[in-house]
Fold:
Amino acid sequence: MLFSTEPKTSLSELFDREMEIERFRMGINERLVLVLGLRRVGKSSLILSVLNSMGIDYVFIDVRKLFDEVSKKIPGERLYEELRIALSRMSLSERVRGVLSSINLSLGTVGVRLSMAEIRGTITSILEALNSLGRRIVLVFDEAQYLRYSTIGLRSILAYTYDHLSNITLVLTGSEVGLLHDFLGMDDPSSELYGRYYLSIELKPFTRDQSIEFLKRGFKELNVSVDDSIIVKAVDELDGIVGWLVYFGKLYLDRGVDAIYEVKEMGAKMVMREVEELFNRSQYYKYIMEAIATLGRARWVDVNRYVTAKVGRRPTNATLSRNLNNLIKMGFVIKNGDYYMIQDPMIRYAVIKVAT
Ligand SMILES: Nc1ncnc2c1ncn2[C@@H]1O[C@H](COP(=O)(O)OP(=O)(O)OP(=O)(O)O)[C@@H](O)[C@H]1O
Ligand SMILES: [Mg+2]
Structure:
């Protein structure tokens, strides 16, 4: 069903994305694939649907979930535990189960703190055991830019996998595209992954026409007739991020046209924490985002004027451009010609809410 809120898991449920499906299929034979795009744009759906359609085994790790709010790190133990749980769900031969349990045993008594080196060694052994299965295994790290917080230097394990474990394909997703690139360091000679080839697939929000078509098809599937003008209004307000369109489709059945307003309210609430966290990091982020959100799209001079008025003095060009670039790296802002814009309408609404 198009309006189901879980990630889609089969190709028959996916709307559009033919090109991305084809590219991802090809990518399975590469060493490393990046699947990039805003939150709720459909990264997990693409990956799961294609892997299921090909009958390929995969391990799916949601890295964001492993982030520890107190230490602001991803503890090596959590990563290991998550890998272990993911493996327990896979169908593996007796031989590999045997190897894995002997690795587990080598970890020693529960409660004994493991050194980072031990955890690294164990994770590496698990990956080696998977590689020895002799068939393709896909290792997916969802929101992989968070791996930069890992306490065990995961990048070098990824590089080892890339170089030596040829049955494992690494798939990394990221909504904070610039940060993911920074973490991987493909262009940074000091990175273990320097110069490696990777296939990159970028999922863009649906165009206006695609979004309209998506809603029409979803309602048709449910045998609900909805006036074109309502569909157009919903797309105008909610834009092309499919996750928000799905919420609208579902809510419409209950609330009718008010669903547009409710999705905006709910969406703004859902992203509020992200926005607040961002604002806590720098007042410049706050004022820049406010300037762009209130104007809809803003040029450098507009942002500069707004920030100057709020801070009470003019920021240096270097400060403003550093902060703007960081916002672009984190995926909050895009630059289109001379204009800066906030990509996700829910983030825009949340910023306006905080500002007023
Ligand atoms: N091509 C598609 N056709 C139909 N529905 C889709 C498509 N892509 C995504 N969806 C729906 O949109 C919502 C968000 O999709 P998904 O969870 O795959 O996105 P994501 O980019 O992985 O998001 P997150 O940032 O939350 O991990 C889900 O309800 C999913 O079912
Ligand atoms: Mg996802």
